[in-house]
Amino acid sequence: MEQFDELTYSQKNVANYLMDHLDQIAFCTLEDLAARIGVSTTTVIRFARNFGYSGYTEMQKDIQSSVMNKSILLEQISRDNTVSMDQMLKDTFANDMKNLETTLAAQNQEDLDQTVELISNAKNVYILGMRSSYAIAYYMASRMGEIKKNVRFIQSTGMMYPEEIAGAGEGDVLIGYLFPRYSKVATTMASWMKSRGVKVILITSMNETPMRGYGDIILPCAVSSISYINSFVAPISLTNYLVTVVAQKNREEALDTLEQTEAILSQGYYLGL
Prior knowledge:
This protein has 273 residues and is of the alpha/beta class. It has twelve helices and five strands.
């Protein structure tokens, strides 16, 4: 799917139903799902293929995985944990190091180079992240804002996100952090901005298939964890890389932005220690 607006009327019905009823349809047959939505089985199959799936069965497996991950959260929190604190520390660090190695191996240098080029030349850089991804998005916005002008963090406070992105268009870039469970609001914003000519860079999970239609560039990250929540060590490391390379590529702008920032902060923000 290139973008939501390009779907047929029937396919939009399928998309809306899937977003709102994942728990109910994870184990539906193709015929049952089509009947519930009120479309043909062919429409459902074509919808799945628009997302890059080979067919309905492959798409359903992703949906089942999403639902299972949701139910596993409560199980992991409530179960008795007999692992020692010392072993938990070692396992946590080992898991994060594995995520870093997996993420590094998954990167495509051409995609990274294009990402840096787009960010460097963008009129405005929008940063997006919902729920747990909000923290990484804020980190990116704060770091990128130190070395580049016109960095806009989409906070969506009080549901103000339509106004926050209304002026986006060609020449702008969106950096979106989307990890399971995927936010419907975030994907809607990404689709709309893409339809306006904004180049969309998505930093997402290793199984990026559900996100393919929403982004121009996909940067996969391993976020597995021994806990009940995703580990964002790898996305943060990738964020650090992007900020560093953009600063090197746009050295004059980075220095100018840093000087102006420090001049403002020196007026009394810090204690002066």
